[in-house]
Amino acid sequence: MEKSRIRSIRRQKDISGTKVAEMLGISAQYYYDIEKGKRNLSAEMAARLAEIFGVTTDYLLGRTDEPNEKSDWDSKLPELTKKDEKDIAKDLQRIMDSLESQEGLMYDGEPMDEETKELIKISLENSMRLAKRIAKKKFTPKKYRK
Asked: Where is the HTH cro/C1-type domain (predicted)?
C-alpha cells in the first residue's frame, strides 16, 4: 500500500484524518497508523477508503498512477500450460482430500455443507492459479520469456 499516497489524496480532498477515521468506523490513531504504514489495511477497508476518496483501489495500492484507472497487472502474467493445469488440479484434489479426511472442514463440531466446501475449493484453486502465474513470471529466465 502506498502510505504516502493515502495521505496525499486525503490532503488533496481537504479531509481531516479524524473525519476519514470516523467514516471508516475506526479510531483516528488507527487511521493515522495506516497512513504511516504501521498498520495494514484490510481489503474491505481499502475499498471503503477508495470510495471515500473517489479513486480505485489499484491507485491506492500503487498498481497504477491514474486515480480512476484500473490496473491490468494480471494480464501481464504468463498463461498456464496444460501441465500447470494438471498439477494444480492434482494438488487441489490432494488438499481437499486431506481436509475432508480430518476434522479440518468442521465448524463448531458440525461438518461443513457442500456449498461451503465448494467455495473453499474455488478460492483455493484461484489462489493456486495466481500463485503459479506469479511464480512463472518471477522465476522464468528472461531468455525464455515471450
From this structure: 6-60
Q: Can you read off the three cell numbers belonging to residue 114?
A: 457442500
Cα 59 to Cα 1, 70, 120: the distances in Å are: 9, 7, 29
Contacts of 112 (CB under 8 A, 6+ apart): 105, 106, 120
Distance CA 109, CA 86 (A): 34
Neighbouring residues of 84: CB distance < 8 A, sequence distance ≥ 6? 132, 136
Can you give the pTM of this predicted structure?
Answer: 0.47
The mean pLDDT of the chain is: 80
- pLDDT for 38-97, tens place per residue? 888 777 888 888 888 888 888 877 777 776 655 555 566 788 889 999 999 999 999 888
Residues 6+ apart with CB under 8 A from 146: 78
Q: Are 3 and 35 in contact (CB under 8 A)?
A: yes
Query: What's CA 133's distance to the chain center, in Å?
Result: 15
